[in-house]
Amino acid sequence: MISAVTLAKLIKEECPSVKHVSLGGNYITRLADDCMKEWHPFFEYIDSIMMYDGEEPLARLLEALDSGDDNLDCVPNLCHAKGGKIYKNHRIEQTFINDTVPDFDGFALSKYFMPELILPVYSSRQCFNHCAFCTIPGATGGCYRKMPISRVFEIMCRLNEKYGTRVFSFVDETFEGKRMEQLADEINASGKTFFWHGETRFSPTLSTDVFNKIYQSGCRQIQFGLESYNQRVLDLMKKNTRVDWIDRNIHDCLNAGIPVHLFFMIGFPTETKEEALNTLAYTENVLNYSKQVCGVPYSTRGFTNFGLVMGSDVWNHPDKYGVSVMPKSQYEDLRLEVDYVSGTGLTLNEAKSLSDEHHIDFYMQEVINGSDTIDLPQRLHISEVTWILDSIHAVRYKGHLTKVKRRLTSLNPADRIWLDSKTSVVLVEPFAYFYNSEYHHVYAVSQLVYLKLARLLEADCSISLILDQGDLELTRAIEELLHYGLLNTNIDADYVMHDNGFKLVKSSFVKEVGRSKEGLRVLLSCATHRMCAVNDFSFALLSLFEKPITKNEVRDILKKEGLSANEEQLNKLVDNCMKADILQLIR
Q: Under 8 Å CB-to-CB from 146, ≥6 apart: which residues?
């Protein structure tokens, strides 16, 4: 919102030929609907807000502006300012669906920080279910409407032909299970290799055969709006979902090889702590079942505490849900989520606390408080793009095996080096960022180093050619890029469980990100996003690893300084820092 209004302000100041600036979308619609009862400072920089669906209002607005008519009262769904007052025109409910092939010309598609192009498509607008917590029905406008699946498939084919994409993200509010099956039939009959994912509802019509068919068509993730694993709460939410459908659908989906993502919330009005814990335990069991029994390590969950949002049924009818809405302050005019008091069940603060305790941040806090390191990218903390790409490429993680870092001087001088096929490079002044979609590792070098490296890669460079450059900064960067799998060489990587016989060196891509309440220093590997926590003495001890050194050599240094190294503690420090890629084994 800030960037949009800033752009509008710049347009007003720098482009006097622009006659009209209008905003649209779900967020601004809800602001205009519930918060803008009178003139707002936004209207210094914008001229109108197109509320709800925008296709027809946009056409009517352009017609009015082209005709030179300053009276915009005839444009439906338009919120505009006139004479220091706010006017909201008559509302129309859109009944058609825009089935135009999306045009992404003008977007810098090659510069998006992903190894493979993913384009959004939709097959329907609105949602046929009006859940009590949801604002989509009120803010989107129009009835639930859908595009023929044959046309959806045609759009996917056209996008594939024009942009080369084979991965599609369905952005329907609800992609009906029956329509997913129809799409699968179209793709399977065509023989095309497409991959896709989308969000749907639990349904008794989804079966093992349907999920198998959907998997065959390239579906590599289905997002479900679980919300709760308690029938009483589901009924109060108006979900129109049965717990037995949930069990059956998730079981069949995972056994077909399709990962799931489960959305849910904690603290819906009247929900008890026991009910919330039941949902949390159920989702954790699903993730374990997916990974350990079905061999599908890409399933995830996403949750937070219930938020009372303006425009939802709970907001419109708080008494029905035993809720008292707290007034907003004068400084919260753009806030759509409001505080509330619930008569029974978890309070707002209790729901927030319970959510925090079981969220990924809680697991990170466990790391900070001194327990063993955890591999953040592997399951719970994983982006939407990562889910589907990992599933498509069947990425397998190596657990806590530690990769051995090689110095170029230890390799065969005739070996070649090349950019890994799963690595993307994005230039953002003054750095070049390398990203690998398989390991989710990222590494930054200066653009000067990148230009030197790019010239070598174009020349099909050998290790001897790199070493002949005599450029220590370039050599060090290449060693790091090889270590993180961003560059490749002929030699297969070594992975070991222990540090016996190796020297250790502190990674150059590590930063301290904070302290725990116990005073432990939290270290983060910027390349792998792994973390560990150390006390002040251990932090000082890590300075000995600025240059390659063995544990025995560390013990000797401590002994000379009159410090006795506890063997168990030193081993634990090294092990934890190796797992977090704070320390690297080097050959």
A: 97, 123, 124, 125, 176, 179
